[in-house]
Amino acid sequence: MKRRWLVSVMMIGLLATTACSEQQPASAPQKELKHVVVAPVKKEQAVTVTELSGTLAPLEEALVSFEVGGRIVEMNRKEGDTVKAGDVLARVNATDYSLQVASSSAAVQQSEANLSKVNNGAREQEVTQARLLVEKATVGLQKMQDDFNRIEKLYQQNAISKSEYESAQNGLTIAQKDLQNAQQSYSLITQGARSEDKQLTQAVYNQTVIAKEVAANTLAKTQLRSPINGTIIAKLSSAGNLVGSGTPVYQVGNIDTLKVVLPVPDREISAWKVGEAISLDLYGQKRDGKVTKIFPATNQNTGTIGVEVQIANQARDWFAGQVVKATKTVTGQEGVYVPVEAVISRGKDDAHVFVNAGGKAVKTSVAIGQIVSDKLEIKSGLKEGDQLIVKGVDRLFDGDPIEAAGGTQP
């Protein structure tokens, strides 16, 4: 009896517990309080600091080479020497070129004599000599004609071979040509040179004069002269070497003024102006340069446009080949700019931020623009005074409770 009573009591207790459980359901778990950093949204002026680097080069430079080949016999200039335009820097062996000048001079003298002969006409002795040659050729032709007539009869009688007959025939032809040549020579001498012959002789003379000038110019090129005022930057050969035309021997440059070509991104080129000053830094030493040229085309490989900056270097304490850093600050439009890490973006048309609204993170869609330095332009979605969560956004969901870093409620 007692045992039954105990079982009944236990059953009543279980039913009572079950009833209480059904009447009081369990409450939902609270969201974790997340610590963030908050900053007020405000408008500001966009400031872009561009840092570019480039290699210093002489303002003007030239690789100087001989225009003629040969063995270098003199090369006395060394690196660091100051030279002026026209100064002799080196020489090659000029013997062969001197002989060409002598040969062309002799040709000029010969053609000049021929020209005088044509213009002055033949002397009496030359006329007599030409007449005698005509007479000699006439006698020779008569003899050959008689011989041919005799041989022809023999050939018709089959007394000689065909080759003997043809030989006599050829001899007669030659004798006829000799007489014609002698007559023409006599005619030229007695009548004087034709205008065409005079023109031809004059042209030959002119050609020899030009050849002499070419030879003289070639001889002058055995001396290597500096094309510019400047400093010997590099000596690229030495005496005794055999060099060909166009082989660089010296590098000469003007290092009193240096230049550097900066690779400016084409989207920023509108901020660069010819004549403006640019700050340059070389191992902590700062110096102002001046923009002197903006190149007219974009480099297709890098997407940059070259901007040439010139730097005074009278002390010559900056050197060609050193790399300098240029800094330029550009002030842009006023607007809302927020740290890049405050924006979650899956593309330009799908971006959002989180703002504090009564201690909770509220997901807010925004339209973004360009990146300026380390900040992102917000075109719409935020207004001045909004409490923007700038750090810790990667752990947030819409509606999460938040607390500012340091334990204060934002």
From TrEMBL:
Residues 336-403 form the YknX-like C-terminal permuted SH3-like domain. GO terms for molecular function: efflux transmembrane transporter activity. Residues 1-21 form the signal peptide. Belongs to the membrane fusion protein (MFP) (TC 8.A.1) family. Pfam families: HH_YBHG (PF25881), YknX_C (PF25989). NCBIfam families: RND_mfp (TIGR01730). GO terms for cellular component: efflux pump complex. This is Efflux RND transporter periplasmic adaptor subunit. It comes from Brevibacillus brevis (strain 47 / JCM 6285 / NBRC 100599). Keywords: Signal. Residues 94-207 form the YbhG-like alpha-helical hairpin domain. The keyword Cell cycle does not apply. PANTHER family: MULTIDRUG RESISTANCE PROTEIN MDTA (PTHR30469).
